[in-house]
Automatic annotation (TrEMBL):
Residues that coordinate or bind ATP: 270-277
Protein name (database record): DNA 3'-5' helicase
Gene3D superfamilies: P-loop containing nucleotide triphosphate hydrolases (3.40.50.300)
Keyword field contains ATP-binding: yes
Known catalytic reactions: Couples ATP hydrolysis with the unwinding of duplex DNA by translocating in the 3'-5' direction; ATP + H2O = ADP + phosphate + H(+)
Organism: Amycolatopsis vastitatis
EC number: 5.6.2.4
PANTHER family registered for this protein in UniProt: DNA 3'-5' HELICASE (PTHR11070:SF45), UVRD / RECB / PCRA DNA HELICASE FAMILY MEMBER (PTHR11070)
Domain UvrD-like helicase ATP-binding: 249-520
Single GO BP term: recombinational repair
GO MF annotation: an example: ATP binding
The keyword Hydrolase appears for this protein: yes
Length: 706
């Protein structure tokens, strides 16, 4: 029996088809599962026919409805996988199919498609123009180097005529996919060795695999082709809305998500939008498939992110019994449950602002020379981070990450304040999230209750050592215990941690994702300039991390940035821009306006209202289908994404926000860390945009703006 494969080009078209056409696709596809190859060719309803003047003799079209035809690549080497590559209105189907050529990449050995007619037509004028140009884009790479990276003769000729990156991008949609990716990397200045590692080696099958049939190449093209084996699978895949992330993982994503087993904690890092959350979800799927009764804890940073994560996991698994084995939550909520079950009492954590008020009161009462901020940080970064329980321990403890030395007498004074803080909490029956984590970690260490077989952690960069102790204690150390994804460049809360010190060592089990699937290269270039050159501690806190090789394959307009003389003028311009985006067909739910302060958002909200544009606050957790532009603080943008984003109020008073910056003379390390946190916050806000980013300010621009 023949088998069926669906190429990504098909999915790009399929999602937008009308119901009746989709029904036609399903009917036609079922025949590929029910009939033999000979019967397929003989079937009157399917009308499998070759295409006149096709550049690829294997091109066929099939009847979908009276007005639509499917385009199929039919094997001619005795193998039996048919590849559905597109669904096109009747008259266009033949022209589309006639121009396409499918080939097997010599380096990656994956199937690629090109618009061979367009490439042949465009290359000679390109060559002519290039003859006058002083330099060529790929001049420094020899033919041999390019050939070793899979560039074939036709593509080589076009590539040799290119003089700049914009020409390469203009050719993008015409070129075979893997070859285009190779050329993009080289054009960005990556070495052939890097490109081989990131593009070729990731895809290339083992040398021992010498099968060169089309079927084998199709099987090897997992980042662009879905293979369907059973009728159930066919029905399922064609029924659901198509989400590429569920099916087409980049080879570097698939390698880390589906590695059979890690011999201990594993870590995946990568810049914004590189698919870390996607990888975490696929890892959960893999772990569930490894054993019929294992239980998994999947955590993220906020309740809102946990909700989305749960929904996406349900989409990926599509099986209630599998889903029931996964608890998706935040570390705080999990710790809270552990503590509540042990004490029988509901915990009521106070907010950071309330906590600071208590410290302020205590500082005043004890007449201490430190600010409430300093005391709160000392409690967080020293006492809770290192689980300091007694005065004696505090007097001895190494105050990692703190920049101001304290003499013994000063430590005595601070311990008195800490005693007082705890006494006040006892009297009021309150606590903080981190204190709950601190005790939950202890509880988990002494009982098997609440333990999981695997823990998968998304948005790991902002977790505090007490939260890490909870996660460490939630699973017995061993193979596949912890799978951690995060990006240290997106650290926007004040957490510093050495994973090793909490018993989590990822040495030899770390991977990095480099390709951004969310934003255009133009947005990325702009946003990465915000943090460019700034050293960032890696996730484990034992070294530094960088964004080398981080890039997007998508292209669009350059971000807009503009200053205004007043906040009112700025709000009016933002509203105008939002109207413009809506006018271009962008749905209001796909537009976000974000700012450092809620007060700035209030102004924009008022202006939008005056202009008749609906808007809702992200913090109110509107359902995805509730109309309205999303308004969010920069912090609330963590983990989200929108087609268009306006980042407003980016002036020198807001970013960095002076109140959040510890003066250097109080604690120089904290000062630097506070500044970095604000820089990362702007980076996070800007990297939420997929297609369009507009940044604005009134007064003096933020010093972090590129
Ligand atoms: N292989 C893929 N194919 C198609 N889309 C993908 C793929 N991987 C990721 N994406 C899409 O890219 C976007 C970013 O993915 P994801 O949220 O997982 O990235 P992230 O690294 O967790 O981002 P951030 O750190 O900024 O929160 C999402 O829209 C996701 O669906």
């Amino acid at each position: 029996m023949p088998q069926l494969g669906f190429a990504q080009t098909f999915w790009d078209a399929y999602d937008t088809l009308e119901r009746q056409v989709k029904a036609g696709v399903k009917k036609a596809m079922r025949k590929f599962q029910e009939l033999t190859v000979a019967e397929l060719y003989a079937d009157k309803g399917l009308h499998l026919e070759s295409v006149d003047n096709a550049r690829d003799p294997r091109m066929r079209t099939i009847r979908i409805t009276d007005f639509w035809r499917g385009v199929v690549l039919a094997p001619d080497d005795g193998s039996e996988i048919f590849l559905l590559v597109n669904v096109v209105p009747h008259d266009d189907a033949y022209t589309w199919a006639a121009k396409r050529l499918y080939t097997v990449n010599t380096a990656t050995r994956a199937v690629e498609v090109r618009n061979v007619v367009a490439i042949e037509q465009l290359t000679p004028p390109l060559e002519q123009a290039a003859s006058q140009a002083p330099a060529r884009l790929f001049a420094k790479h020899s033919d041999t180097v390019l050939r070793d990276l899979g560039i074939d003769a036709g593509v080589l000729r076009a590539a040799r005529a290119m003089t700049d990156k914009s020409q390469l991008e203009a050719f993008g949609g015409l070129l075979p996919e893997d070859q285009f990716e190779v050329l993009q990397f080289l054009a960005e200045g990556f070495t052939p060795e890097d490109v081989y590692r990131d593009v070729v080696a990731e895809r290339r099958p083992a040398e021992s695999d010498t099968d060169d049939s089309l079927a084998r190449a199709i099987i090897n093209t997992r980042s662009r082709i879905t293979l369907v084996t059973s009728p159930d699978e066919l029905a399922e895949i064609l029924e659901k809305p198509f989400a590429a992330w569920r099916v087409f993982l980049h080879p570097s994503q698939r390698r880390v998500a589906y590695r059979v087993s890690y011999n201990g904690p594993a870590q995946v890092t990568g810049g914004p939008g590189t698919g870390k959350t996607v990888v975490a979800l696929h890892r959960v799927k893999h772990l569930l498939s490894r054993s019929p009764d294992s239980r998994i804890l999947l955590t993220t940073f906020t309740n809102a992110l946990a909700k989305t994560l749960r929904e996406n996991l349900a989409l990926l698994l599509d099986d209630e019994s599998l889903l029931a084995r996964v608890q998706v939550t935040t570390v705080d909520a999990y710790a809270n449950r552990v503590a509540r079950d042990a004490s029988g009492q509901t915990q009521s954590p106070i907010t950071d602002a309330d906590e600071r008020q208590i410290w302020r009161r205590i500082a005043r009462k004890l007449d201490l020379p430190w600010s409430e901020q300093f005391l709160a940080q000392e409690f967080r970064h020293v006492v809770l981070a290192q689980h300091v329980k007694t005065r004696e321990d505090y007097l001895r403890v190494e105050r990692h990450g703190r920049g101001a030395a304290l003499r013994t007498a000063q430590r005595e004074q601070i311990w008195q304040a800490i005693d007082q803080f705890r006494a006040e909490q006892r009297a009021a029956g309150t606590t903080t999230h981190l204190q709950i984590c601190d005790s939950a970690a202890e509880l988990l260490g002494t009982s098997e209750n609440h333990r999981f077989d695997h823990v998968v952690v998304d948005e790991a960069q902002d977790l505090h050592p007490a939260q890490w102790r909870v996660l460490r204690a939630a699973v017995t150390p061993g193979p596949d215990d912890l799978f951690i994804t995060g990006d240290p460049h997106q650290r926007i809360y004040d957490s510093r941690v050495s994973l090793r010190s909490v018993g989590i060592s990822v040495t030899g089990r770390s991977s990095r994702l480099r390709i951004n699937y969310r934003s255009t290269a133009e947005i990325l270039a702009w946003a990465t300039a915000v943090i460019d050159g700034t050293a960032v501690d890696d996730l484990g806190g034992d070294g530094v991390d960088n964004l080398a090789g981080y890039r997007s394959l998508l292209h669009g307009r350059r971000p807009a940035s503009a200053g205004f003389s007043s906040a009112q003028d700025e709000a009016a311009a933002v509203s105008e821009r939002v109207r413009d985006w809506i006018g271009q067909g962008v749905g209001s739910t796909e537009i976000a306006v974000c700012a450092r302060f809620n007060l700035t958002l209030d102004k924009v909200h008022d202006q939008l209202k005056t202009d008749g544009i609906p808007a809702v606050r992200v913090r109110d957790q509107p359902a995805p289908d509730v109309e309205g532009v999303r308004l969010a603080s920069m912090h609330a943008m963590k983990g989200l994404e929108f087609q268009c984003v306006a980042v407003v109020g980016v002036n020198d008073k807001a970013v960095p926000f002076a109140k959040e910056i510890t003066p250097a003379e109080v604690d120089v390390k904290q000062h630097e860390s506070d500044l970095l946190k604000e820089r990362c916050l702007l980076f996070v806000a800007c990297t939420r945009a997929r297609d369009a980013l507009a940044v604005s300010w009134s007064g003096n621009p933020s010093p972090f703006l590129p």
